[in-house]
């Protein structure tokens, strides 16, 4: 019964189905799993109630990001085979179960259960949920694939805007001891299970041969856009996949380095100056970065439909390098300059996530784009380690050497510029996929 309900055959849309109902279904999942960006709300109470260090309290978040990439890579083909409803349901099950296991761990004082629940089980839910709507959205919106995936992935960036105040209010109501944390985890698990299930019930796939009423508006050169299909296994054999892996990894590394350390970075950057940044203002800066991260996912990915994927990544990588240089040269001259540069960098960070599925579709077709996307997300797993490691390790070393203010971050900012330049070069090397990798049944490239 359940297997039948989740079967791809059961979710083929009727002729009068509106494709605009699919983005809300995707948003229901992505807004939920985007809670991972609000994990920092639970760090202080966990540290005080369980006697943890800051490094230990970050472990569930770090593990969840690593598992996100690995599970997306390993399960991507299964997601394509079994369809979006199955994938969304599995995501809801794992993500919610992760919170319930974490609730048990907090209640009985066993932190390893929180790590396993939120990091491992919940991380699997993150990976499946993140890629679950990708190929479906691009099949419904062949005329605007960047906009379609931007809507969904915008939800992942904006999930923390809902989860952060919601989690904080629950901790205030339930308390910040073990019992209060456990109750907050429990409520999260139950509510997200319901919300994500609604998305799974709403999602549909287009019927065979379906096409939008208006033909795709091609305002850019089609030289990078294939009409053929490449399987996920064959995609791994192409240089295009690995070049794009480098592009995504380095773009994410540059952005996540600021995102993970945003509050201490802005306070440290202006400490000892005539315009010090208070803790409250630093918190506002973090919220502002979350907004630009979310907005960039929609704005820049939609723009890529007009200017092309390669051109928009030139902006992300080349523009990002110039913005980091701007922080180095002019950031200390005033808070507004620092904030504006950081906002744009984070918008490029978010835009990179949202644009990459459409870039993959252009290169490899739609047949297994979700599975290819899943494999590519291992770049995110790597960046989730490298980005924070670079910024934190350099800052710690500089602090130990007696540096203060901007000098704490200068070296890491130069490293980020170098990484973005390498990513820019990798993007320039991307060319159309050799026809020898195309599936013969797809009709070849045009």
Automatic annotation (TrEMBL):
Where does it reside? Cell membrane
Which residue ranges traverse the bilayer?
20-39, 59-79, 86-105, 111-134, 146-168, 180-203, 241-259, 279-300, 312-331, 337-360, 372-391, 411-430
- What keywords were assigned to this record? Membrane, Transmembrane, Transmembrane helix
Q: Which domain of life is it from?
A: Bacteria
- UniProt KW Glycoprotein keyword: no
Q: Which InterPro entries match?
A: MFS, MFS_dom, MFS_trans_sf, Proton-linked_MCT
CDD domains the UniProt entry points to: MFS_OFA_like
The record describes its membrane topology as:
Multi-pass membrane protein
PROSITE patterns assigned to the protein according to its UniProt record, in alphabetical order: MFS
User: Mainly resides where?
Assistant: membrane
Sequence ranges assigned to domain Major facilitator superfamily (MFS) profile in this UniProt record: 18-430
- What is one Pfam family matched by this protein? MFS_1
The protein's name in its UniProt record: OFA family MFS transporter
**What is the protein's species of origin?**
Saccharopolyspora halophila
């Amino acid at each position: 019964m359940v297997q039948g309900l989740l079967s791809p055959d059961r979710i083929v849309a009727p002729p009068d189905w509106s494709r605009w109902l699919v983005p809300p279904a995707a948003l229901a999942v992505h807004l939920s799993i985007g809670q991972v960006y609000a994990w920092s709300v639970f760090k202080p109470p966990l540290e005080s109630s369980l006697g943890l260090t800051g490094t230990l309290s970050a472990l569930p978040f770090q593990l969840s990001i690593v598992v996100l990439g690995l599970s997306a890579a390993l399960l991507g083909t299964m997601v394509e085979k079994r369809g979006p409803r199955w994938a969304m349901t599995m995501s809801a099950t794992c993500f919610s179960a992760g919170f319930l296991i974490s609730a048990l761990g907090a209640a009985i004082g066993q932190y390893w259960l929180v790590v396993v629940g939120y990091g491992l089980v919940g991380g699997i839910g993150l990976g499946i949920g993140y890629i679950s709507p990708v190929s479906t959205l691009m099949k419904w919106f062949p005329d605007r694939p960047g906009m379609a995936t931007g809507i969904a992935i915008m939800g992942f960036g904006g999930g923390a805007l809902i989860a952060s105040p919601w989690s904080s209010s629950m901790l205030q109501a339930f308390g910040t001891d073990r019992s209060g944390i456990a109750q907050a985890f429990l409520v999260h698990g139950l509510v997200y299970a319901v919300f994500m299930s609604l998305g799974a019930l709403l999602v549909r796939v287009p019927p065979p041969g379906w096409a939008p009423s208006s033909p795709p508006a091609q305002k850019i050169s089609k030289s990078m856009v294939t009409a053929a299909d490449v399987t996920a296994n064959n995609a791994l054999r192409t240089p295009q996949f690995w070049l794009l892996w480098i592009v995504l990894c380095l773009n994410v590394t540059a952005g996540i380095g600021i995102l993970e350390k945003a509050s201490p970075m802005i306070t440290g950057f202006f400490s000892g100056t005539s315009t010090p940044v208070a803790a409250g203002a630093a918190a506002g800066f973090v919220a502002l970065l979350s907004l630009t991260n979310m907005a960039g996912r929609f704005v820049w990915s939609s723009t890529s439909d007009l200017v092309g994927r390669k051109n928009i990544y030139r902006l992300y990588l080349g523009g990002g390098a110039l913005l980091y240089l701007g922080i180095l040269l002019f950031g200390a001259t005033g808070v507004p300059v620092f904030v504006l540069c950081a906002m744009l960098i984070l918008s490029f960070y978010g835009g990179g996530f949202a644009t990459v599925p459409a870039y993959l579709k252009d290169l490899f077709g739609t047949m297994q784009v979700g599975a290819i996307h899943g494999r590519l997300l291992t770049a995110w797993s790597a960046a989730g380690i490298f980005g924070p490691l670079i910024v934190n390790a350099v800052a710690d070393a500089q602090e130990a050497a007696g540096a203060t203010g901007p000098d704490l971050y200068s070296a890491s900012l130069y490293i980020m510029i170098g990484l973005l330049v390498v990513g820019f070069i990798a993007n320039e090397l991307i060319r159309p996929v050799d026809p020898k990798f195309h599936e013969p049944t797809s009709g070849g490239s045009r």
